[in-house]
Amino acid sequence: MSPPEKVDVAFRPVRAGNAFEETVERLLQAIKLGAVAPGDRLPPERDLASRLGISRVTLREAIRALQESGYVEVRRGRYGGAFVVYQAPRPARGDLERAIADLGDRLGDVLTFRMAVECGAAEALASADLSPEALETLERRLADVNAAGPDDYRRLDTAFHLAIAELTGSTLLAGACADARLRITDLLNAIPVLRRNIDHAAVQHEAIVSAIRRRDPRAARRAVREHLEGTAALLRGFLA
Amino acid sequence: MSPPEKVDVAFRPVRAGNAFEETVERLLQAIKLGAVAPGDRLPPERDLASRLGISRVTLREAIRALQESGYVEVRRGRYGGAFVVYQAPRPARGDLERAIADLGDRLGDVLTFRMAVECGAAEALASADLSPEALETLERRLADVNAAGPDDYRRLDTAFHLAIAELTGSTLLAGACADARLRITDLLNAIPVLRRNIDHAAVQHEAIVSAIRRRDPRAARRAVREHLEGTAALLRGFLA
DNA sequence: TGGTAAATGTCTGGAACCAGACCATTGACG
DNA sequence: CGTCAATGGTCTGGTTCCAGACATTTACCA
């Protein structure tokens, strides 16, 4: 037998690192991702801390960091909370290059990962026995994206993609999709939202939902694949 | 627009929980997974601690727990270390039911996740431009499984599956596959290794490698899908 | 036979993190 | 116009976790 079957992936890190930094990162991504729309507020500290599995103290430190960086505005009293004041800026020339450079050689990693999990989610959803409510949620997200203005587009696009993952009912898969999306948000936000691209995406989105609706896993997968490949190709192009 | 697009997956836990318990779990799974064969030793404490991203103290506590449970044997001095003494027992009647009950309603979640990431990995690998060394590694793992005795089978089967993920070069995807495998190990170990099943699996493994070799992503995906679906169906059957 | 390298074993001080109790503020609503 | 519930703000004591220095053990090897 061949001796060195070192499966080093079994010894990968148990924890990501510092709880505070992780939390800042998570919240920041939740904001950029649009899980909380500008003007809305984060859940109450006690709730959020328990959902994130950290103490309120640590969460508060993270929120303060976001406050000092101008992402949220904290108000006290009843109906108070941490309100999102961040509005994703229109991408400027050079943003994309910078974001890609930040990601470094992990770009390919992320793109591969995203392709695998999002295609998998779509296929799983199209194989499942969807409740009418679930289907309605999906249609609603699709309508939201189609009705979005330029400032809302990325946010609602993300919500649509993540809805597919969440509706599979697999929290592991949904988590993986969210993770993939988080890692690529900065890149997506750096791509200008052009009319032509939106229209193209809308057709593809429709194809995805249609495949899911008629329970055609292979078509669902193919549709997602084509949808993501456009972005992937664009980004990989900047590596040359 | 439809107001409540609560993407609660964005607020999922930042950290898994207790570092000590997480570490015990991880090491235990690494052993059951066969990342370290019986008789072999874990990496030195300092190495391992840094790889796992925890302190040596915490790692030592975890190792001591494994020692007291009889999984490893620790020897001091040069050429010492934590040696694996655990030999996966032949599954007994009722093990599988117990393992499934332990997993509870997360079974579907795990199966869906596993299907998505392993299919994704195979497809990605079949789309990639494999180096001769990579291909050779894959062939070697395949040969290892085919040459395995009953006691080694699960371990080498795991090594084969994880090799596919690792060779994609995407650490995220490899990590996800390892994670999926970890979560399902107890189930797999509870399934008796029958001659008939081994032969069947060997044919499917060959189909997977063959598809990768001739760079046919769709065939690779389909082969993995069929391979995993057998297990999934078997397990789901126990839910009824 | 003794030196040495590589490993585990032990200790200390400090940083990070937590749980929970309590305080302060605020806007809605009766 | 006062009450109150929901929220952020603060404090205390304790636990977990860490980094690093130092001690001990052991097998190879000159």
From TrEMBL, chains A, B:
SUPFAM superfamilies: GntR ligand-binding domain-like, Winged helix' DNA-binding domain. Pfam families: FCD (PF07729), GntR (PF00392). Signal peptide: none annotated. Residues 17-87 form the HTH gntR-type domain. GO terms for molecular function: DNA binding; DNA-binding transcription factor activity. InterPro entries: GntR_C, TF_FadR/GntR_C, Tscrpt_reg_HTH_GntR, WH-like_DNA-bd_sf, WH_DNA-bd_sf. Keywords: DNA-binding, Transcription, Transcription regulation. This is FadR family transcriptional regulator.
